[in-house]
Amino acid sequence: MDSITEEQTLILAAEGDPNEPVKEGFSVKDEDSLNWVLDLIRRNHYYLAAQQHIFEQKLKRLEEVKAIYLREQEDMCKPYREKIEGLKARFGPEIHAYVATTLSKRAKSRKVNGFVIGSRQTPEKVEVLDQLKMLEWAKANLPKAVKESVLVSEVKAFLDDKEEAGLVDELGNVIVYKKPGESKEFIELIT
To answer: Do 71 and 158 share a structural domain?
Structure first.
């Protein structure tokens, strides 16, 4: 059974109960009340971190066990996979040749003894070997096939480098601008 380590227990015990209730009508009005609320938040951060650590350790152990079972499964199944592939390699051409002689002119496969034996055509694919030459050709001969996009991160770097807030086109329309960041309040535990 997983539990918090002795060291974590001592730290948590020294900090106090994270479930300490907030008294009715309590408000932050001075240093003592401020420190009390911050201490309560800190205690909950410690308990949260301890619980997350416990669950991370459990998940790590589960992944280790899963890896062991997967290796065991692979070891047990490997001889059968090899036997299947060996039989298909040895007898596959003969099986296909024989079944082809028994097919009607329109049929492409046949069910035999729990198997479907036949052939299927894989779809045609286009493989581009030279992207730049293909792009040049498509721009000149097939413009609807060309899709251009802009890397926003590069535009931001350009604007930062030039100390510009944005860019406008020749008509004065804003085409891109840097949106200022938002200010958000936060309370974070310093660790």
So the answer is: no
Do residues 11 and 46 share a domain? Answer: yes
Q: What are phi and psi of 54, to 5 degrees?
A: -60, -50
In a domain, 31, yes or no: yes
From residue 92, alpha-carbon distances to 13, 80, 89, 113 in Å are 71, 17, 6, 15
Q: Is residue 137 part of a domain?
A: yes
Q: Using the 8-state DSSP alphabet, how is residue 109 labeled? A: E
Residue 185 maps to a domain:
no
Reply yes or no on whether the pLDDT at 191 is more than 70. Answer: no
The pLDDT value recorded for residue 10 is: 52
Provide the mean pLDDT of the chain: 83
Other C-beta atoms closer than 10 Å to the C-beta of 54 total 15
Percent of the chain with pLDDT over 90: 26
Distance between CA 186 and CA 175 in Å, rounded?
34
